Amino acid sequence: MPRSVLQRSRVLERLPQSLSNAALEDLLFTSKAELESQDADTITLSVTPDRLDLLSEGGLSLYLEGATDAARGIPREKVNTSLTPAPAFEVDPSVLALRPTIAGVVVEAPDETGLDAGTLVEAVRFQEVLHATVGRDRRAASLGIYPYDRLEPPFRYALEPTAGVRFIPLDSSEELSGE
Predict the structure, then answer these.
(1) Cys-Cys link to 56, which of 70, 77, 101, 126 (CB 3.0-4.6 A)?
(2) Other Cβ atoms within 10 Å of 6 Cβ, number
(3) 8 A C-beta contact, residue 178 and residue 160
(4) In Å, how far from its chain's centre is CA 37?
(5) Residue of 150, 76, 143 lying closest to 104 (CA atoms)
(6) What is the dihedral of CA 116, 117, 119, 125, to 10 degrees?
(7) Which CATH architecture has domain 3-67?
(8) What is the pTM of this model?
């Protein structure tokens, strides 16, 4: 079963009252999650493959908000349609055999916290969980996290000989080769 170690404080900070260890274990039992261990700082969970959302602090928090009646209904999506320039992808036919389907999404950090270190760690950890499970170790799918505000669309996706690839890494001014 997929497994993750979560920061306890990030999970429980959204709830109006604290949960005892026993109450947390009972709530998780009904969610298809198994509490492997917990201490003052961490919660270690394993989940069934249809509940991967519980393997991130944000996903588990949403579940616990509903399970404890701290929130009701489906959280409203906040859709930003004013991105400029609009994201656009140019997909070269050379990638068809490797990636027959390509999608992109721009996700913004929560208004309350922004992109703090904890949120970034959570996003990267969940990205790795998705790679290992749904993505079958990146053979079926892979995800990337990029700072959209520092990139320029359109984004081109193509297979290129490594020797011909030149780029400037983020936070750098020196051009590098793909090799």
Answers:
(1) 126
(2) 24
(3) yes
(4) 23
(5) 143
(6) 160
(7) 2-Layer Sandwich (3.30)
(8) 0.75
- Mean pLDDT over 4-30 rounds to 89
d(C-alpha 95, C-alpha 160), whole Å: 10
Distance CA 133, CA 5 (A): 16
Cα atoms found within 13 Å of the Cα of residue 83, Cβ hemisphere only: 17
pLDDT tens digits, one per residue of 52-83: 999 999 999 999 999 999 888 887 777 777 77
Cα 7 from Cα 58, distance rounded (Å): 10
Point out which residues pair with 4 in neighbouring strands: 45
What would the pLDDT profile of 84-103 be if each residue is shown by its tens digit? 777 888 999 999 988 888 88
